[in-house]
Amino acid sequence: MEFTDASMVPPDLQQPLSNFLLSLADDEFILGYWDSEWTGVAPMLEEDVACSSIAQDEIGHARLFYQEVAALTGSVPDQVAYNRTLTEYRQVQLVERRRGNWAFTCARRFFYETADQVRLASLTTSTYLPLVEAIGKIQREEVYHQMHSSVWLNRLATGTPTAYQMLTEALQQLWPDALGLFEPFQNEDILLAAGILPVPSATLEQRWLSSIVPVFERLQLPLPITKGASSEESSAAVYHPTIAAQLGGRQGQHSADFADLWDQMTMVSRMDPQASW
Amino acid sequence: MSEIIAHTSDGSLSEQQIWDALQTVPDPELPAISVVDMGIIRRIDIDVVSSSIRIVITPTFSGCPALSQIQASITERLLSLASHVEVAVTMQQPWTSDMLSESARQKLNKVGIAPPPHVGRGPLLPMLTQQALTCPHCGSRQTVLENPFGPTPCRAIAYCQQCHQPFEQFKPI
């Protein structure tokens, strides 16, 4: 069964779908928020422009998803974006770390963009059609983000020893968070049964790893992943992390960095809930 | 633009009048180009009985900050033709740079922005990174892409090695 709009969603699906859309929206919103901080202070003018432009795109994508949540819950996008307590946000912890140095930003973007690409591709067959429409638009824009993040990973990995070292440190720091990118969504079984989520997160994680492992190998970057023998005829897990994933974001558990960001970004709406801008 | 449908329940306010009016509404970020030539008008509905016009538009980029301004400009312009104007936004048939009209392409060139190459159903990136861009100032194809990101989400920055001018390239999207 396909859902052509919010009004077709049965009551028992509304909450799982809404939380799922919030997960997609919050990832883009929070990452866009941090990356927008490079405006004016990026290492070179071109990157100043690029980061601002990418951040603007991400926040625009978040707005599309927030609109869908608002349609489901009878709210408006600004309210959905700002009027929530800390634990009601659903982003993974990777995106909520402070922007760090340039290598950290580039490393995080590479993890996120490659994972986002895998996730968006899988959602083009979702039974929730407003989501499919939004993704049709988003994918065309993300092409440029993916190119940007790949260029920078390569540039830092093959650049000066300092660049390589800073990138390596950032990647080592970020791997546990990166392995949390495919933390299952809340009520994932319900979403899968309804076809809203066409592919389980565990399968997506394998697809994602199979896309980035060769890149890390080629560039000799830290890779806490072992490759298992591919099992018989099934496509069971081939890549096994050797470190623990940082999970909890999808359940509303967040870091101190996000608490600070939340305080900052919701300040105006908390001071004047009726404000419009 | 064959997919665009205009509906009228009576002949007294014509679809053409609305298209003509919309031709005078500029894109806020590219004032030389109208919202019609940008290809963002998806649908026009006219109800003469209640004197209402409903326009459906689609953004060029989903994070386009000019969208609410475009909605306001269209509303303001069409209120001279009808009592009620609604401008809705859709993501159906998402905008692609192939939807720019021929006239828009010529106007872009005139204001120093290279029009986007036609994409069709092919991949986007090779259109920007793997073929020579054409300088809108001197027409040379001895150019380099400096930055795929520019002053607005829809523009990249390039440089002409022939006339030594930087120029903006409308991104294929």
UniProtKB/TrEMBL annotation, chain A:
InterPro entries assigned to the protein according to its UniProt record, in alphabetical order: Aromatic_CoA_ox/epox (IPR052703), Ferritin-like (IPR012347), Ferritin-like_SF (IPR009078), PaaA_PaaC (IPR007814), PaaC (IPR011882)
Membrane spanning residue stretches: none
Gene3D superfamilies: 1.20.1260.10
Signal peptide: none
Taxonomic superkingdom: Bacteria
PANTHER family according to UniProt: 1,2-PHENYLACETYL-COA EPOXIDASE, SUBUNIT C (PTHR30458:SF0), PHENYLACETIC ACID DEGRADATION PROTEIN PAA (PTHR30458)
NCBIfam families, A to Z: PA_CoA_Oxy3
Descriptive protein name: Phenylacetate-CoA oxygenase subunit PaaI
Organism of origin: Dictyobacter formicarum
TrEMBL record, chain B:
InterPro entries in the cross-refs: Fe-S_Maturation_MIP18, FSCA_dom_sf, MIP18-like, PaaD-like, Zn_ribbon_PaaD
Domain PaaD zinc beta ribbon: 130-171
Gene3D superfamilies xref list: Fe-S cluster assembly (FSCA)
Domain MIP18 family-like: start-end pairs: 15-89
Superkingdom of source: Bacteria
Pfam families documented for this protein: FeS_assembly_P, Zn_ribbon_PaaD
PANTHER family for this protein: 1,2-PHENYLACETYL-COA EPOXIDASE, SUBUNIT D-RELATED, FE-S PROTEIN MATURATION AUXILIARY FACTOR YITW
NCBIfam families: PA_CoA_Oxy4 (TIGR02159)
Protein name stated in the entry: Phenylacetate-CoA oxygenase subunit PaaJ
Species, as recorded: Dictyobacter formicarum
Taxonomic lineage of the native organism: Bacteria, Bacillati, Chloroflexota, Ktedonobacteria, Ktedonobacterales
